[in-house]
């Protein structure tokens, strides 16, 4: 079987590499000529553990190819995955222009049956628009070619995407015909050897499943952050509360960690899109509106704690940030809490030094020279008045606290991810504050 994947962003590249790893011949397509040329030369545009080696291995084996011309491979493939971007529009809705552009190209050039699968996260009803767009182009050509549309949303976690794809909790596939179901079953058959579930359903339900899953996870995060903030007020410990409620089988212990807010390419965008979809259909997602509001406020919690410690006088203070990416094991800075925090620190007149194991280049692209880029964790804290832990990278877990304290002007640590032990840091002579304790 040969497939094409349009879009070589995070989802498209991981999907293409993993399908190729399982023996499928894959052509990855992108309109960005420089990106495609870089990929042909083995240069990977994103950081994801294990991805670079997998791409190189399958290129060398002749199973993974890159091109800028969709029409060149369109009629050689059985399945086309659309994995192009769906950025939020000004009103919060998902912008489908790239998705529909792919559909138009398909309708203009296809000559045989094709299964067009949407991999991007899209609102309910998008597959219908894709079908209508392809059919309109076929009608303009005056040809009658059968085709199918399907939805196969991704559930990849950045930093663990390869493992998630190769050993997923489940694969959700929305189809509208037996022919489409048979093709998707053939494609995923190698994965079935690992006994994971492929859940077939109708297309609108598959489209909704992706949004509902992300909405639930985001809700759990904002719920725990709300609980954490109340814990501080009443003198409770959110870590104990998390253990207490997480032991309930009806709740479980995943996504119950308090912190300084979520970010990334999925949760913020998808929550906005789902809220907008509801409004378009005359309904209000009251819980998700609160989830979004809590998260936006939570991104400022470390700044508020710093203000409180210095009684509102932050001008001239030197502040260090450990962690910039929205989560560990990625260089993704989209909607990262660190960006909100840095913006507030700079506006308050602080000098900011930052360090992240992989996101420094992306941060520099976004922020220029407005902050100081440290060489390592210790360089970041030289002569600073506070250290703010924003992203819980493993290398931040066990630093030499004696060295850190010696380098800092003021031994103040604000832990935005609750990864440190209060008693240990107090024994080293630090003033330590975290979330919800």
Task: Report the CATH C-level class of the largest domain.
Answer: Alpha Beta
* CATH 2nd-level architecture of the largest domain: 3-Layer(aba) Sandwich
Number of discrete helical segments: 18
Q: What name does the CATH topology of the largest domain carry?
A: Rossmann fold
Based on Cα principal axes, name the global outline. Answer: elongated
Largest sheet: 6 strands, parallel
Task: Determine the N-to-C terminus distance.
Answer: 55 Å
Tell me, rounded to a whole number, the average pLDDT: 95
Q: What oligomeric arrangement do these chains adopt?
A: single chain
Unreliable runs: none
Give the beta-strand count.
14
**Helicity, in percent?**
40-55%
